[in-house]
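Lecture 7 notes: from sequence to structure.
We start with the chain below.
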Amino acid sequence: MGNSRNTSLDTVVTDFILLGLSHPPNMKTLLFLVFLIIYILTQLGNLLILLTLWADPKLHARPMYVLLGVLSFLDMCLSSVIVPRLILDFTPASKAIPFGGCVAQLYFFHFLGSTQCFLYTLMAYDRYLAICQPLRYPVLMSGRLCTILVAGAWVAGSIHGSIQATLTFRLPYCGPNQVDYVFCDIPAVLRLACADTTVNELVTFVEIGVVAASCFMLILLSYANIVHVILKIHTADGRCRAFSTCGSHVTVVTVYYVPCIFIYLRPGSKSPLDGAVAVFYTVVTPLLNPLIYTLRNQEVKSALKKIIAGRGTMNEHK
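Predicted structure tokens for the same chain:
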């Protein structure tokens, strides 16, 4: 085997072959272009959100938009961990990924993905305070507290990623080395281990299940309180405004959680749909987030218009 080395005991895998998405050979060029365009639009869309928030002092001073900026940065990073490697599958380049590269991809995917999970929970908590505790909101969600909570989300995400990567790659891998998936992820890699993976599958199910379920329950609790308060608002216009501030977040959370539940909370699944679902939440969701927030959020749209109008005025003066 050209991608392995012999030891006195067994054959140790030194790289993996990512089989990627199954597709007709004549679709390679089209798929290459589609994923390349999606990746470029994802980076540009999220960068535009970051620049808009940074350029408007009123926005980058508010916790809600600080959290939105962090989400955009996470989307850019998560997309960069998965999509460039996926695009290579539609070129003549080798599908091999070094063992260390596979470890890094799995770690960063779970690090960034779980950080995003914690961030969605913070965003729900922020909306809960803004709508249910409006008078105390500046005290309960100060800039300093927001920074501490975001830093905590990053640290917790890093710990989660480290646990998953360590547990997955402490097992021996002695061949075969073909990962039947679009990237190095726990379920697909574990199928190649030369050892019993029952404990790993149980820990993955419990740990990811506990993290996802805890965050999801806190988000549901926040929104149950929010809906309860909104329904008490007497004017229809007031109710619409309150619901619109939460609509974007609810949409994004739904788009994030449904695929995660489909993939990670079904231990041992070998469904051919897993790859397509993985592509959706690693490739499409980071593209949708800036669209959802810019199209549904009036303040972001207003800030964007001001920037564009300002550029137009500058060009007229030149």
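Points to note: The chain has one domain: 13-309. The chain has a mean pLDDT of 83.
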